[in-house]
Amino acid sequence: MKPNLLIISIFFIITSFSTDTAAKIPEPDNLIYGTAHINGVPITESNTIISITASVDGKTIATYKMGSNPGAKNYYDLSLALDYRNPRLPNTVRTGETGIIYIAGFEAQSFIVGERGEIINLNINANNAPDTDNDTIPDLLEDKNNDGNFANDDTDGDGMPDYMDDNDDGDTRLTKLEDYNNNGHPTDDDINNNNIPDYLDEDFPMDYPLPNISCFNIPQSISNTKFAIFNICNENFTHYKFKTNLNTVYSDEYSTDMPIHITATTDGIYAISIIGKDTTGIWQSVYEPTNYSWTVYNLDLDNDATINLKDAIIGIQLLTGSNNTEQIRLGKLIRILKYLSETK
Q: What are phi and psi of 82, to 5 degrees?
């Protein structure tokens, strides 16, 4: 009889302690942290007017104001309170729920609530924020004094607020052209290392020489072959990127000792834009690339890199059974024969 009473007493103590503990000890928070960008431009701890918020089911459950935690530096830091009790406490989340992170009210990234005490690294970006002057810097990041009033920030004192001024420091170069490291925005470019971004630096040399790539072995304005080779010849360059009218996105970075090979798939007009990086690491502006264009009228029908009698024979064969392209094929055959007669 006594052992049974002892067991019952221990069970009562354990269950009472567990219930009381669950009521008083909260669940460990989820922590979400990372870098934040607006239109691809990084937000820093100095942008104190910008807040990052997390919401679940349309309700804000966590907020972080940039710069409010000195230890976080240029990172945001959101703590999500977990609660599994019913009814749940306000402003809490549960594992598996989906939420959205906003930057200054602009949607940036969805997320899924993790397990108890989980830490999640999530680098976020909000697109479509206004950029009134189209200088690649969103209006939100042109409030230099962080007072929430864009109209009283005028770096060059020309009477036009920076968010409306496409040349913030009043030098000879537009703000967007002072992106010397070619990463899509000028906020982290400081060539003279005086801790003032070049686009806001009135003392930065206005005649700073920008690199300008050049090429040789380029195709003639009218090319009779579909193959084109561009060799980079500026000795001050180390690397380059390029894009064509067939691909509007710049390529990966290549060493200048590697030629550009372009193959035309059809006759027509082709164009290429090339930007180079000089020995100091400065990129030619994407807004001022080196451009070439040429027209392809391919006479090398057997693709052996020479125009000869074989191409004329192929041209004759192509005429057989042709329909609405007969005139085009006949014109090409005539051009081949003319080319051969002129190059004897």
A: -95, 145
